[in-house]
## 1
Amino acid sequence: MSLLELTSTACLVVGGALCLTGGVGLLRMPDFFSRVHAAGLTETIAAPLLLIGLMLQMDWSLDLFKVLMILVLILATNPTATHAMAKAALHGGHQPRLGDLSNPSEQDGHAEEDSSSKA
Amino acid sequence: MQYLSVHNARILAVLAVFWLLLSGHFTALLLMLGAVSVLLVIWLIRRMDRVDGEPVRVWPTFGLAGYLLWLLWSVIKANVDLALRVWNPKLPIRPVWDRLDTSVETPVEKTLYANSITLTPGTLTTDVHEDHFMIHAVSQEGLDELREGEMERRVRKLGL
């Protein structure tokens, strides 16, 4: 395997793993605002790594430029979209849950319910 | 005559090159469609300038490129930190939502700073005010790092 293929494979595998991490984060995070952070993980590093992995396997062509443009577009629009979502949630009266939200089921199997009912 | 300015000529050149790179076809029909869309975009830009009265021009400089590289590096570091938190069985997060006092002044500086904060996973700008931002962070450390102000210093150094 050439160095180029090796780098490309590494990017694709790590990118895929980070996509999974983002998904797991979305499911595990306790409220809307912390979920937004987990979603950001997918957009700011997983998708770019996948695209870079693809670009490394392509020939020099217009398609390479197009993939690069997709990468730039994702990175440029992500903060705007994230900010708009967060602001809309606040505007709609959604308050972030603050303080220690680490997984209560680790210490006590049934503590999860009463911490979420307070919010 | 207001359409014949250097500013418009630059936009026209950039848009034309952009269209050609994206399309890659050089038939008469597609070139004409390209010309029409480029002119339409320039007309729209003119209208928007007239409405908000302050056209903002940012040029790609070495300073900006250096800043983006530094930002890329801090995004990678923040992602590793967040990924470790996600996979940790205890899910060690302590969300905070607090004000961050800033001294960035111009609209471009504010935009760049607020978006850089949001782009970095773990911190999120929810509101932009005259002299402070509202920041939601997944942990106190993320907010403290912003308060140390390295990112702000770098943004201000660009002098946008």
Note: Chain B touches chain A at residues 21-22, 24, 75-76, 79, 82-83, 86-87, 89-97, 114-116, 118-122, 124-127, 136, 138 (CB under 8 Å).
## 2
Amino acid sequence: MSLSIAGMGWITPLGRGVDQVWDRLIRGDEAIPQTVAGGEGAKTYHSFLVPNDALQNLPPHPRLRRVSAISRFAVAAGLDAIAQAKSESFKVDTEKLALVFAVSNGGVVYTKRFYHNIVEAGAQSASPLLFPETVFNAPASHLAAILGVNGATYTVVGDGAVGILGIQMAAELLETGAARHCLVVGAEEADWVLCDAYHKWRLTRSSPPIEPFSDSARGTILSEGAGAVLLGADGRVKIDRVNSGGNFSHQRDATKVVQRILHDLRDPNACIVASANGTFIDDAEREAIQNEASECIVYSPKAALGEGVGASALWQIIVAARALERKHLPPMLHAGNNSLLRFPADGDKLGPTAIVLSCGMNQQATGLRLLA
Amino acid sequence: MGSFNALNKTSPPTRVAVVAAGIVSPLGFGLRETLQSLQKATDCVTPVSRFDVSNCRCKTAAQIPDDRLFGKRQKNRKTARLHRASHMMIAAMAELTERDPKFVPDITIIGTTSGGMSFGENYYRAVYQHENLRRAPEWLANYPPQKPVLDAQHEFGISAPCFVIANACASGTNAIGRAFEGIRSGKYERVLTGGYDALSELVFVGFDSLQAATPEKCRPFDRDRTGMVLGEGAAVLALENFESARKRGAEILGEVMGYGISTDNHHLTQPDPSGSGPRRAMEQALESGGCSPDQVDYINAHGTATAFNDAAEGKAISEVFGSVPVSSTKSMIGHSLGAAGAIEAVICLLALQSQFLPPNINFRQPDSGLALNIVANESREAKIDVALSNSFGFGGTNASVLISKLAA
């Protein structure tokens, strides 16, 4: 069976809609950082947030009344992917539609608010309305209810690599006949507590830019949003290989895992949409690419979109699919001059394949290959 | 690494053997202790000791004692940093690898709901109360749900790609179901699967705030049931292509025959009262296993003892299966959320191997609205060839897995 992308949807700090965000990436736009403040006296951070107007036109469904941003992002991207597929005359039967939701940090805004009440005022003040929204699969449940999916719905959690694990799971659902189409959605929401946590984890920097593949890993900037791809037998771009990757116990071991993935996926005519985000990931990917695919053009969208963690791999897949359709990549922003990698340049013509590498910040790495 | 389109379609479907298992739960450490506690109908629910519950309605849970869980491991500097969920996974994996040291999975699929949640709580309390954040990096690095799985893999030299399913309380059964499907389709030869969850304050208070947790005894399917108690634990199962397992002489504990999944869009936290979601999952598991309802000898129910769950599940069970023996072992060990499906699958295996029905304790009065054959209060001997295990969760996720004894 062939696995193809029948529809795509994304909601990012650069806006919503495949054409709109793609055009901005091509223009070299990058998201505008916004200050994310904690409590009084707490350190402030910068994050790339989804603009308010990007969430207009969501359906007036009762499930969306009290949900947190992550659920709205997931619903917006998921519905857009299905709408795009339908606009291109793909018939999507919800009776035979499965849903895979990929996430890393989850509904952190409501989780923080729920636990804050407990810490501040005791268990008796805990909100029964907030608690269900803290569960990892709440966004998938809302999206399933809105779409009317009553078959297989899975939520997979992991680090930034989780989106491709979601694609792998979808591929298996389709291959075994459990569904005719599978909607894979990756989403994340940003919050001060996440910015603080990743900062204390020494993975973020205080303010932009993100400098992928620069000489020293100065850290990344968290962002939020969602990406969605509708997978089925037919579509304009095919996913012809998925590598579920592997795990690394120490950051220094990431290179070996990424290189193994790239070795499996390599194609001298492919471009690579990497996950480099200004952290240790950049070194791992650079070394792997130099060893396995030094001739390939390399692009990372993270300088423009930020590190969307659970959403990131889906964003990369959409970038890669769009690049294959349009035959060019957006300009690489803030990249190191000495990285010895081949970045997109005017006049480059892309071949028919693209590799998406996804190395997460907590021990997981995956990849896949797209074919136009 | 094979690609998805390299699936080896086989006909008839590949049989899926369980070649090893490991379990840590309030019933005990390992299959032997678990079996003994089940047969003795042990009530493992005790007052919560890990955090303050003075402002909660419910003040009890089924907990794994720290001294047994950590043992000597806590003295090791590296393992001392790990979350207790990692220790649970490592303990369960130790039993599995001891039982089948040659089992090397192609892939790992584990269910959980809350990962290392208590480390997230430590971090947030420290931030909010301006306390020392020296341990923050270690809390944060060990908080993500995949970490206990990767820790357990690392401990035993396993490097398989790792999928973590978080389908709320159905996670463990969904993980086993995906593992089963992966082997049955010919995609994988061996899959490590299971589930884990450790008790945490946030989740405990959450269920308490919903008034889903009871201040009394947990009485699944009883007329006077008042809600659930929480539990914790980890269970892992080694699934393998049946022929491959037989060729290498692996001990076969049982067979996973079928799996069903459905989504109930009625409400985020409440099942459709018609029981249609559970019913679809159970019927699909039967269909997938090529099994008729009258071939099922025992059902390990989701049975949380909440009014809504037990009513919907009980209705679905009686409509599909009639008077098959049913018990909810959550009455003994509480609801261990993402671990529940895996622990209960292991309990089914033990029931099949030792030919007994695990009990539904604290049962006093049948619910006149439910026509169920409850295995009340004591375990009893029975001839069991096929068992069904149910798990249902927030978000309307329903999953059932069908397990059989190896035919003589």
Note: Chain A touches chain B through 79 residues (CB under 8 Å).
